[in-house]
## 1
Amino acid sequence: MKVILNEDVKHLGEEGDVKDVANGYARNYLFPRALAVPCNPMTLAYFESRKAEIEAKKEAKRAAAAGLKEKLEAAVVTIAMPAGANGKLYGAVTNQTVTEALHALGFDVERKRVELPGLTFKSVGKYHAIVRLYENASATVQVVVTAQGQEAAPAEPAEPAGNPAPENEASAAAEEPAAGDAAPAETAEEN
């Protein structure tokens, strides 16, 4: 059955597209949700009159994809994973892992749109992932996989070189024995 889509339908097409679908899919899913209308001369004429409006929406999507592409290519995604001493990961970095890292950076990207060469990254290093955007547009994202203990940790505050300040009095007493205590212990050991 030929239908014309009223809205963008995932895995089927965009608004205004004429598609050939199964009768049951059209009757039971597309028509009750007003996602599509039957393709006939009257509906074709209606969508022909809206052609400029639909093209404007598609152009806005293309512009948004171009802007997102620039932002994604400028971003560096750093993922910390548990790894062995030789740099081999205990798990693997998948497109789900990269998608979660992109969400943490503020990018709204679907997991299915992220493609990794070789499907997974299994060792520490720098890689590139491809994010498929609208139509044929795609962005190449730099992915840096680090060992979990080796990521750039925040520097600890430097203590003065001369006399480090103890954290509490108990640790101060344990670090510095009293002057009177040290001498008798040494003489007792000599006897």
Note: The helical segments are 23-30, 41-49, 51-74, 95-104, 169-175, 179-190.
## 2
Amino acid sequence: MKQKETIAAIATAMGTAGISIIRISGKDAISITDRIFKAKNQKCLAFSKSHTIHYGYIMEEGYKIDEVLVLIMKAPNTYTKENIVEIDCHGGAMVTNRILQVVIRNGARLAEPGEFTKRAFLNGRLDLSQAEAVIDIIHAENEYALQSSMQQLSGNLRRKIEELRKQILLELSFLEAALDDPEHICLDGFSEKLSENIEKWSIELKKLLSTADTGRILREGVKTAIIGKPNAGKSSLLNLLAGQERAIVTEIAGTTRDVLEEQILLQGGLSLILMDTAGIHNSSDQVEKIGIEKAKASLYQADLILFVFDVSKGFSEEDKQIAELIEQKPVIILLNKIDLKEEWNLEDFEIKFPNLKDAVKIPFSAKKGIGLEQLQQRILSMFYQGAVSYNNEIFLTRARHKESIENAINSLFAVKESIACHMPEDFFSIDLMDAYEALGKIIGEAVEDDLVNTIFKEFCMGK
């Protein structure tokens, strides 16, 4: 019933521009607008051609509310595949809300967050992965995220999943037919052929799965923990990368007591989520100990560690403790404060910390900006190495996509085990169907209503 109702919402941010847009979608979108819109030529909008713009006034009880442009788009060639009207009015909050209320009083209801895109999905205009790409485009923080989302919106992921599901369904259909009619359909050699196909599908799915971490980084940014002992220059590094004074910097050790986050954009278009942490050392201060524990927790969440080592102070037990914590993580070691000790010997560091011998080490000065460009280039090369380009490459950007792919791979593996154990063929069909349905969840086939509603709640009003 709700999908048959005509919905309306403000589709632009309030008070930030000279123009606002009220979007209306549904069977009665045009007739509702006809009741409140007076065109200069008096022409009825219902008889207007689709995708035309009309100039006039929004009226209520004989009074002009605002001078507007009205865009008419008729089903099915619209975003929602329903009739859509967009009213372009002046951008003031009062006039925009007034027009929206007039629309609602004349038969529309207020749209829920994401309901326009939800209708596009329910009406077959978009699959679920494309709908998720819409919200990712809106929230894109860098060029890589934007281009990746655009590729997903264009249907690259959908086409890949549909092709794999089609191949699985062909084998499943043949198997079911053979089980139903064994006298006319022979299964000789079927198991060997199915095993080969499963191997091929699994390789393709594992390749997709391998893009999940890169896809998350494209969408969210590189979680980067800045680690070091107290007063090593961690907060100075955060301020240098952020281009502003975000953290307090003093000569007093232990200034940072909590994890301070800042999102920045590198020149190469990559987002970093910087986490400035408390200095790791032995402390009896209760508040400082909590900060140190949070710093250690940040290590496990991080995609990248920036270990700030103070060359002017030399080695300490705290540095040794940090080195042990980070040896299994991607790490860049910044040999900080070289402006205070230019004759620093890199070999001394490698002798003291052999477990970090292969880690990237950059002579650095957070105070003077020495080594900043080298650091930025190194981060870009570590994560992308030129592999991410604006082409047709597919990346999994959502945790639920990754989970569905993993479930499909596990189901296909179960089929292979059944084949290896010479189980009856009807066992194959159960796991093949599980794989088929797991992949279907990515594009919205056989997906629960609760999941659909949860996804569209991420959207803003009017989208």
Note: Residues 305 and 331 are 5 Å apart (CA to CA).
